[in-house]
Specification:
CATH superfamily of the largest domain: P-loop containing nucleotide triphosphate hydrolases
Number of domains: 2
Keywords: ATP-binding, Nucleotide-binding, Transport
Strand content: 35-45%
GO molecular function, one term: ABC-type transporter activity
Number of helices: 8
Helix content: 10-25%
Organism: Inquilinus limosus MP06
Protein name: ABC transporter domain-containing protein
Oligomer: single chain
Family: Belongs to the ABC transporter superfamily.
Shape: globular
Number of strands: 21
CATH architecture of the largest domain: 3-Layer(aba) Sandwich
Strand order of the largest sheet: 7-8-9-3-10-11
Order of helices and strands: EEEHEEEEHHHEHEHEEHHEEEEEEEEEE
Radius of gyration: 24 Å
Length: 369
Amino acid sequence: MAKLSVEGLVVAYGSVTAVRNVSFDVEDGEFVSLLGPSGCGKTTTLRCIAGLEGSAAGTIRIGGEVVAADGRDVPPEKRGINMVFQSYAVWPHMTVFENVAYGLRTRREPAATIDAKVTEALKVVGLDGFAARYGTELSGGQQQRVALARAVVTSPRLLLFDEPLSNLDAGLRDRMRFELVELQRRLGQTSLYVTHDQSEAMLMSDRIILMKDGEMIQSGSPRDLYERPASRFAAEFIGNANILEGDIVRMAGDGSALVSLPGGPAIEGRFSQSGSVRPSGPVLACIRAESVLRLRDGEDGPNGFEAEVASVSFLGPVVTCLLRVGGLALRAELPARGSPAAGDTIRVRIDPDAVILIPNGQAPSAQHP
């Protein structure tokens, strides 16, 4: 295990800059995800760290050792890393044991050592008893476990994951998320994980680095990014958010504000970042769908108002409702039991602390906790 450090990474293809001045650390034993839409530069960054891609500028260190910088480019096999790809790359002509043992054999380790390490790795990923099977005899989830065992058996300094669960069906993908996190915690392995799935990143990560257009937008814990988005992009990409444009009516000394919403009611909210508080001007009000609460008869409170239910979609334990509040449209997630019907008028409330205010028109640099 080792700390990863990336400083000022730039990757360009002709006139196109794919990664622009990206800098971050992954501490020893930490699980960090690079999250963002397709084309944001997350996989290119990962491939540079692995040594599979060159860079125009920047320095990459693993365990304090410079593996990529001006005039220095350590080959992938000498970086002390292993990578789990989207494709499992399980060789069909080899048994599970032979697949997992491949890296150890290329290092010419003694047969007894190989046998012991492979047996332990298969046990760790829940495949003890599968050593003699071939890749064609395994399910997708079992093949993914083989790829994981092969990645950890050589005790690398750093584990890299390139969307390794995206080829699995939804149920198996959910189970593998928990298994992968449990494995990483048990081994204490420094890990960098690439995904476009915000739920996956939220569930698995100690920290998330959000990327867009080759740049870091925000970095922090899953809770930080969810509760304190620093930009419209961060608010929309993580979670199910309503983004409403408004103007500050008045400020309070605690960072909260009353905001007028065109075509709708005034609403109380709080700025997500202490450094973004402004006394006046346009703002965005970010309201998570699950933060819209239905009031019972006689209940009231701040940010309470009547809403017409335009549509209702059933999602098992909850329903997603499209509400009309004056001229505003608002998505809400409400309990399915006793849910309203389309055409109903209901009274709802949003806690002021759940209304996240973001300066409108601001294009912030990457925010760090």
